[in-house]
Amino acid sequence: MATEHSRSSARLMIAPAVFVLLVWMLVPLIMTLYFSFADYRPLRATFETWIGFDNYASFLTSSSFLSSIGTTLWMVGSILLITILGGVLLALLLDRPMFGQGIVRILVIAPFFVMPTVSALVWKNMFFNVDNGLFSYLFKFFGAQPFDFLSQLPLFSIVIIVAWQWLPFATLILLTAVQSLSSEQLEAAEMDGAPALSRFWHIILPHLSRAITVVILIQTIFLLSIFAEIFVTTNGAFGTRTLTYLVYQRVLESQNIGLGSAGGIIAVILANIVAIFLMRIVGKNLDN
Amino acid sequence: MNMKRNLLGSTLGFGLAAGLASIAMADEITIATVNNGDMVRMQSLSPKWEEATGNTINWVVLEENVLRQNVTTDISTGGGQYDVMTIGTYEAPIWGGNDWLVSLNEGMADDWNIDDLLPAIRGGLTVDGTLYAAPFYGESSMVMYRKDLMEKAGMEMPDAPTWDFIRKAAKAMTDRDAEINGICARGKAGWGENMAFLTAMSNSFGARWFDMDWKAQFDSSEWKDTLTFYLDMMNESGPAGAANNGFNENLTLFQQGKCGMWIDATVAASFVTNPKDSTVADKVGFALAPDNGLGKRGNWLWAWSLAIPASSEKQDIAKDFVSWATSQSYTALVAENEGWANVPPGTRSSLYANQDYLDAAPFAKMTLESINAADPQKPSVQDVPYTGVQFVAIPEFAGIATQVGQQFSDALAGNQTAEEALASAQALTTEEMEAAGY
Amino acid sequence: MARAITTQKKIMWTVLSWGIGLLIFFPIMWTFLTSFKTEAAAISDPPVWFFFDWTLENYSAVLERSNYPLALMNSIVIALGSTLLGIIIAVPAAWAMAFVPGKRTKDVLLWMLSTKMLPAVGVLYPLVLIAKYFGVMDSRILLVVILMLINLPIIVWMLYTYFREIPGEILEAARMDGANLKNEIIYVLTPMALPGIASTILLNIILAWNEAFWTIILTTVNAAPLTKFIASFSAPEGLFYAKLSAASIMAIAPILIMGWFSQKQLVRGLTFGAVK
């Protein structure tokens, strides 16, 4: 269908996007790669250009590395789980006939517009704070001891904050998918006397699978780089240090650019493994 | 330009010079500062300087962690975005030693009296005789306590209490049903948060961070005593969310009347005695930070200071501003506008000779004594290869201490024992120090 | 009878949805209420809901302490600028990928998305050095370019999935009529693609507005947007909940209002090819 002419103009049209992204990826990445083999500690005024794989070795062997991987997987995994489960349920709910659907949608979508720093600050101070937070009043109201979320359930607290921000996104995409489901199909199933649960399993869920993969992909991309929420709430304490945060600590807190860069490169490699894995699934799903 | 300006400054009166300067060199400088009360006040008074000199100021006011991250990146890459930076006693010697900061030994205003600075504070900002930052306010730490609760508990606070007394008093004052916690202290992880408190405390327990060969000392019995004592005391009498409490959180608790005692920065004294914010303003007493009879008290030494990066292109104007903001006349200006109790404390001897100030600030004497009691040159009972009271003045410290602080904070939250926390601290410190080539 | 049941059900769904909706919205609502309280009322025990002395003092305190108009302006310029620049680069690329797919199209697309996985801190130092070298630290243009680059993959992908749903026959028809590539885009595709483009623009304005790593690190005053503005309120001495709330509301209100007014457009194109 496409002619030679349109092919070459197509290439021309893709070129700028590819070019800028290539520059964006390569230039800083090559510099990071260069630093990762150097002993670069500006606070010591140290810059030795080649120390081999020392930085990689110490980053990979430090005890914080493996635990940060675990934390990252745990955090991203549970946020995905909450937003997708919640998103599916909310999407189904919002699809029901009701009064004031538009307003409910406005309420549900709102957290997505809140910047991460603000939502972390609000949750941390006004909800989780053990002395003056709303949850503590709630606990006290029911006669329970105030609970210190951020130190007792630190990971869970951060997961709640981030899931709150991303739930609207998942809900919206899933809602569009739910709405595109033809009502005849559902009605036919209802006529056949299929119970609600089986309708959900056999008709709705398969229909949503594509939307779910998309949500997983997009959210993973953003969730792997969660920063502000951790920075504001626990500063990486209580086992909430993700790989991204570990790299941040190495680069900015310890000011060991060589070590941090090695960590950055490792993070890039791992992220790309995840990416390839995800892309495979999504790619397959998007084809048919 | 430089010479002309100095000439002007020295031969003409201030007003005239300022008038001329505004024509000759009206310019803009960018100042990065922390969002503490005293700094915010400086910001609100700075139009006076702007009017006098014709220069304008761009303010970058940030929360402490964000500020540190910003200025450190800027200075280590020679970014040159700031003309004046607010830094602490930890950064000044390290950055100064790297020649990243401008010397303040010369070029400051004539009435800026360098010899008036408190020796302990000045010493902390000086490397090899060169002063690299001008102290804006200085602080040590001390005990702030509720006189009424102390009386109710049937005890009397000595001027120089011991740790055992503090723990006993804390237990006696605690009334969890009335939401009164005997002791509030920092628990939030961070080298400038719980580690400032714990490192200072460990000094009074005879502990040290490193021995003379730079080997980490968290496996010592002194550190074990420090941490167990701290954890036991906090568990007995501390607030519920102690592991998340930093300076700000504890300040709020104390002002709400939920703390019997609070051991923290001396600058807090003016906040807890300010009836506008504090519900307990008239019931606060002060005492020196506790000791253990080993000859060192558990108080620290810190000065938020103004420094000029070598990458600044407007060093003369910056010096003019720094002179203004850290001078005796600035103190007088604050006193005139906000009252003597609100002047930035802890930097100049002259302030503590001023009867107006001593009358207005019941905490003045204790502040000065606390500052004088801190010895950054010899922080521990044992020999150490480093300087700094609540920190170790090496570039690696901030990164290491924040991670150690996370271990200790985790122990305070009850997620691990003191032994486990110390073992992790020892391991990670050893690892980092080896990586740093010690 | 049947009708009664549906109404009953409808009421049930309504109550349930409103309950959940209000629950999700509650943190924002609470922040909004707190921003009008005095500091004492903000932490009073038990919490006060609506019946307190409403005050604007927090807002005036925040305005007095910081340059809100400048931060707001910077946020607007950076969010709009980076989005528009991104759209200009992405529309042709997405169009070509959707209508003239080659063997490698999918690979290119996936590669683009993978650049988004680059952890920001990993390239922080190089980027600061580059920005310094070009003398663009603390400039709006730097942030416009960087945020454009960060979000470009998302823009391309979103447009691509949207464009792909435009039936190819229409193009064929246009070509039969002798339309060239340029006309094809302007007269045939653009009208059909507009909802998708609008939705992409909206989503990216939101993403750019809320980006809080580069915008804080790479700015000081001149280009400092609302994310940096809020950073100066995060922990002043004492916990000033009311002022923090006021500053928070000031930072999120513009984007929240924009989002609400345009949510139909936003939702319409927000499918990422999730719906067939």
From TrEMBL, chain A:
- Which Pfam families does this chain map to? BPD_transp_1
Give compartment(s).
Cell membrane
Q: How does it sit in the membrane?
A: Multi-pass membrane protein
Q: Which GO terms describe its cellular component?
A: plasma membrane
Keywords in UniProt for this one? Cell membrane, Membrane, Transmembrane, Transmembrane helix, Transport
Q: The ABC transmembrane type-1 domain covers which part of the protein?
A: 69-278
**Which residues are listed as membrane-spanning?**
12-37, 73-94, 106-123, 155-178, 211-237, 257-279
Q: What biological-process terms (Gene Ontology) are attached?
A: transmembrane transport
User: Which InterPro entries does this UniProt record tie to the protein?
Assistant: ABC_transporter_permease (IPR051393), MetI-like (IPR000515), MetI-like_sf (IPR035906)
Which PANTHER family does the record associate with it?
A: ABC TRANSPORTER PERMEASE PROTEIN
This chain's protein is named ABC transmembrane type-1 domain-containing protein
Which species is the source of this protein? marine sediment metagenome
TrEMBL record, chain B:
User: Under which name does UniProt file this protein?
Assistant: Sugar ABC transporter substrate-binding protein
PANTHER family referenced in this protein's UniProt entry, alphabetically: ARABINOSE-BINDING PROTEIN-RELATED, DIACETYLCHITOBIOSE BINDING PROTEIN DASA
Record Pfam families: SBP_bac_1
Cited InterPro entries: Bact_solute-bd_prot1 (IPR050490), SBP (IPR006059)
> Could you say which residues form the signal peptide?
none
Automatic annotation (TrEMBL), chain C:
Name the residues that span the membrane.
Answer: 12-33, 72-96, 108-135, 141-163, 184-206, 212-231, 238-261
Q: Which CDD domains match?
A: TM_PBP2 (cd06261)
BP GO annotations:
transmembrane transport
Chain ranges of the ABC transmembrane type-1 domain: 72-262
Q: What is the predominant subcellular site recorded for this chain?
A: membrane
Q: Where in the cell is it found?
A: Cell membrane
Query: Can you supply one Gene Ontology CC term for this chain's record?
Result: plasma membrane
**What Pfam families does UniProt report for this protein, alphabetically?**
BPD_transp_1
List the membrane topology term(s).
Multi-pass membrane protein
Is Ribonucleoprotein one of the keywords? no
Keywords in alphabetical order, please: Cell membrane, Membrane, Transmembrane, Transmembrane helix, Transport
Which PANTHER family does its entry note? INNER MEMBRANE ABC TRANSPORTER PERMEASE PROTEIN YCJP, MALTOSE TRANSPORT SYSTEM PERMEASE-RELATED
Q: What is this protein called?
A: ABC transmembrane type-1 domain-containing protein
Organism the protein comes from: marine sediment metagenome
What is the phylogenetic placement of the source species in the record?
Answer: unclassified sequences, metagenomes, ecological metagenomes
